[in-house]
Amino acid sequence: MRLPLSLALLAVACGGNTVDIPDDGGSGGDATTTDGGGGGGDGGGGSDAASDAPVTQSCDDLAKQLAATKADAQACCPTCKSLQCTATAQDVCCPIAVETADKGQQLAALVQQYKTLCHPACPAIPCAAPAMKCDPNTSLCR
Prior knowledge:
- The protein is α+β, with helices and mostly antiparallel strands.
- It has one domain.
- Helix content is 30%, strand content 16%.
- It contains three helices and seven strands; from the N terminus they run H-E-E-E-H-E-E-H-E-E.
- The chain has a three-stranded antiparallel β-sheet with strand order 2-1-3.
- A hairpin with a 4-residue loop joins strand 6 and strand 7.
- Helix 2 packs antiparallel against helix 3.
- The longest helix is centred in the C-terminal third of the chain and has 18 residues.
- The radius of gyration is 18 Å and the shape is globular.
- The chain starts with a helix and ends with a strand.
């Protein structure tokens, strides 16, 4: 399977950064970025406070989550007789067609988090406008 240029750039642009994300279902909030060097922590304790601790996620993990969210947002049915690919969302570098505005908003929020924390580089080329059609070969909005 061949990856789109934006996904390939996404995977390359991460570097070694890690992201602290609260374990609250991904509602955003006070995430911080740290270098990927790792470090010691305390040995834990006898309380259940660990469940409230932020989950550390690398840029690579966030990129994988972004790729899965993007695939879900772009999934369409080329043989269905219904309106599809009716919305756009901002991907890491360029806008893309997505199935619904709700899925586009979810993708855009994750893209913004990724861009803020991982600082991906985009090529200095203009973006093509999304075609707003369901590709019969991939079943993805293009």
